[in-house]
Amino acid sequence: MANGERAPTIRSVQVVAVINYKGGVGKTTLTANLGAELARRGQRVLLIDLDPQSSLTFCFYHPDEWRTELRQERTVKRWFDSLEDGVAGVALTDLVVHPGPVNAALGDSGGQLDLIASHLMLIDVDFRLAATVGGGADPHNPALFRLHGALSAALHASEFDSYDWVLIDCPPNFGVVTQSAVIASDHIVIPAKADYLSTLGIEYLYGHVADLVSRYNDEVRRHSRNRHRRIDPNVAGVVFTMIQFHTGRPISALQYYIDQVRELGVPVFTTYMRENNTLYARPVPRGLPAVLRERVTSQISIELRTLASEFLNILNAEGAAA
Ligand SMILES: Nc1ncnc2c1ncn2[C@@H]1O[C@H](COP(=O)(O)OP(=O)(O)O)[C@@H](O)[C@H]1O
Ligand SMILES: [Mg+2]
User: Fold this and answer.
1) Per-residue pLDDT tens digits for 155-168
2) Angle of CA points 314, 320, 322, to nearest 5°
3) Running DSSP on this structure, what letter comes out for residue 169?
4) Which of 18, 134, 165, 229 is deepest in the core (most CB within 10 A)?
5) Interval between CA 241 and ligand 1 midpoint (Å)
6) pLDDT in tens, 47-94
7) DSSP strand pairing (83-84 vs 87-88)
8) 213 pLDDT more than 80
9) CB neighbours (10 Å) of residue 26?
């Protein structure tokens, strides 16, 4: 290294966006269980709930607690509301909360599970943000560019370096909020059901992500002197959810769609999340995702742990290759 050149700062925190523009495909269930399992293994995990339905938030807080403790001051809505031309007036770090029951259940693993909660009134944020940037027809809208990069910039605050993983649970659409999460991410995970519409949707979603990344990087090039950085999120793969098994394999009607997605060239996790209407039913008892609630020997625990191991293998390999 030449004299005076500084070594690049290597951030060990990995940001993962969990996306699918369909609702009810298991995004939140996957985010909560993966986060809990990584924390159980001693990792420091931050979950960010960007969905106005707030299901991830309610995995860890009772709605009454949310109302009294979080609603006013401690939700991501406050951060979005404070955005002025892509710069937030509120520090994202001020919104981080530390849910009690789940952290108590981690025991002495050394892991940690934090959350930035959502707000039921986040529903209009996409419309409001779109209105503030205006100029829908302008491909080089600088206000939209700054808005797109806002979450990424916020997550680059040094306080977030203390985490190993940031998992972002996205709303079921590809609006500005989801786009800003994709731009903030190192990796993308796509939970999906194995059915016709989901298969179709994955192809579109892939296209949308690729298009967003290339448009954003074009803008980074145009604004080369500002603080925005080039992005290159990896699609880690599709996690098939709500799978019914027969003799140890997905039933053939579902296997057909899994194969279809593979044939598209989309990476697919080899571990599936099986359908289980009792365990994944809401509300989540005691604020604990299934992976922390179940006996370690239960089929669901084993499956979720295998999934977390596969997630770590894939993402760590991607991180090493980057
Ligand atoms: N593997 C599963 N088996 C059965 N029900 C599930 C499973 N995963 C999720 N669910 C249920 O399906 C609904 C949608 O799941 P959720 O994770 O909230 O999806 P999304 O975040 O994509 O909207 C929830 O009621 C959840 O409890
Ligand atoms: Mg959800």
Assistant:
1) 999 999 999 999 99
2) 100
3) E
4) 18
5) 8
6) 999 999 999 999 999 999 999 999 999 999 999 999 998 899 999 999
7) antiparallel
8) yes
9) 21
Query: Which H or E element spans position 90?
Result: none
Å from CA of 24 to ligand 1 middle: 6
Measured from CB, residues less than 6 Å from any atom of ligand 1 are 23-29, 55, 172, 241-242, 273, 275-277, 280-282
- Percentage, residues of the chain above pLDDT 90: 77
Residue 127 has pLDDT above 70, yes or no: yes
Which ligand does the CA of 171 lie closest to?
A: 2
What is the rounded distance in angstroms from the CA atom of residue 250 to the CA atom of residue 268?
14
Indicate which residue's Cα is closest to atom 11 of ligand 1: 280
Per-residue confidence (pLDDT) for residue 229, from 0 to 100: 86
Q: How confident is the model at residue 228 (pLDDT cuts 50, 70, 90)?
A: confident
Q: Which atom of ligand 1 is nearest to the CA of 243?
A: 1
Instruction: Quote the CA–CA distance of 113 and 166 in Å, as a whole number.
Output: 10
pTM above 0.90, yes or no: yes
Q: 25: CA distance to ligand 1 center in Å?
A: 6
Domains of the chain: 14-321 (3.40.50.300)
- Cα 307 to Cα 220: distance, rounded to the nearest angstrom: 35
Ligand nearest to the CA of 191: 1
The two three-digit tokens of residue 298, written as one number: 């239960």
Mutate to test the pocket of ligand 1, among 22, 25, 280, 288 (most ligand atoms within 8 A of CB): 280
Residue 185 has pLDDT above 50, yes or no: yes
Give, using CA atoms, the residue closest to atom 16 of ligand 1: 26
